[in-house]
Amino acid sequence: MAQKEHDLQMDYIEFPATDIEATKRFYHQVFGWGFQDFGPGYTSFHDGRLAGGFNREATPAGADSTETRGTLVVIYAASLEDTYAKVKAAGGKIVRETFEFPGGRRFHFADPNGNELAVWSE
Length: 122
Prior knowledge:
The protein has 2 helices and 8 strands. By secondary structure, it is of the alpha+beta class.
């Protein structure tokens, strides 16, 4: 499927991780997932249907921290700028401005409940 066919659909899911190597061993052993590392603090996986990643910058929900985020759902958008504007117009709060990463750009927002999600594009 071309990315355009994924417009405004969940495309990637990102989990917080405290130990990338232990996380890779666990998910490979249990589910057979393969991984691709993007530096020491990030690894990406593909389970055969959906892709995702584990990010050491994020704090797992319930961890000993005053800042918890939990799982990050990432939505693909053909136009990052249009979707950014729509999020703001609908009352969403931008919690991380647009930034570049290997493969594209994304921003994070909080929904009316405070749930953090992200939107990405090439």
